[in-house]
Design a protein that fits this description.
Structural class of chain A: mainly beta
Number of strands of chain B: 11
Largest interface: A-B, 24 and 25 residues
Shape of chain A: globular
Mean pLDDT of chain B: 94
Number of helices of chain A: 0
Order of helices and strands of chain B: EEEEEEEEEEE
Structural class of chain B: mainly beta
Helix content of chain B: under 10%
Largest sheet of chain A: 6 strands, mixed
Number of strands of chain A: 11
Distance between the termini of chain B: 35 Å
Oligomer: heterodimer
Mean pLDDT of chain A: 89
Radius of gyration of chain B: 13 Å
Distance between the termini of chain A: 41 Å
Helix content of chain A: under 10%
Strand content of chain A: over 45%
Shape of chain B: globular
Chain lengths: 113, 112
């Protein structure tokens, strides 16, 4: 069946370093992808999205890369800060459809001082 | 701007009791969703509603029911709670066009 999964359940990085969180998806029809950040005790919050007609999209300190050939996307966080410590989820969907988002299991990012 | 409001924020419930988790959104979104989040299993869809008056089953619907009488409200009911329903429950909404969903702050439910 369809699935969206993450390669690594945990990631620890030194403050100031760059972080890379990876995600694989299996539905080749998916054309819309989102990264969410979930801090402890809170609901997931939208970080950045990307559509399948793009390979890369940049936000403030974050970049999402999409490789449709291998059905893989990644979230890069530049100059990681303590406030970036959270669980990060990728999600995929088909834009324009009534289909629900499919979420991966999440990666716990811990920023070390 | 409130966004999505869930109530209660936490609850301890005796097994066998009935419980309704409340969810209200003020964004006039067509679609609303209920997810449960368990450690290591990410977010799993319980029920959804693409528009007022319609509902559908998600990945883990057993033991739960929903209603969507209007656009703003989407309550989730546990008819007879069991310990396996201990979880954190998140309500979310979206424009229903396959784009981002906005989440509430969650309800932590413990069934004992």
């Amino acid at each position: 069946g369809e699935s969206v999964g993450l390669h690594l359940p945990t990631l620890s990085v030194q403050e100031g370093d760059n972080s890379i969180i990876n995600c694989a998806y299996s539905n080749s029809a998916s054309d819309y992808f989102i990264w969410y950040k979930q801090e402890s005790g809170k609901g997931p919050q939208f970080i950045i999205d990307i559509r399948s007609n793009m390979d890369k999209r940049q936000g403030q300190r974050v970049t999402v890369l999409l490789n449709k050939t291998v059905k893989h996307l990644s979230l890069q966080i530049a100059a990681t800060q303590p406030g970036d410590s959270a669980v990060y989820f990728c999600a995929e969907n088909i834009e324009g459809s009534a289909r629900q988002l499919t979420f991966g299991s999440g990666t716990q990012l811990t920023v070390l001082p | 701007i409130a966004g999505i409001t869930q109530a209660p924020t936490s609850q301890i419930l005796a097994a066998g009791r009935r419980m309704t988790l409340r969810c209200t959104q003020d964004m006039r979104h067509n679609a609303m969703y209920w997810y449960r989040q368990d450690l290591g299993l990410g977010l799993r869809l319980i029920h959804y509603s693409n528009t007022a008056g319609t509902t559908g089953k998600g990945e883990v619907p057993d033991g739960y029911s929903v209603s969507r009488a209007n656009t703003d409200d989407f309550p989730l009911t546990l008819a007879s709670a069991v310990p396996s329903q201990t979880s954190v429950y998140f309500c979310a909404s979206s424009d229903g066009e396959g784009r981002e969903a906005f989440f509430g702050q969650g309800t932590r439910l413990t069934v004992v």
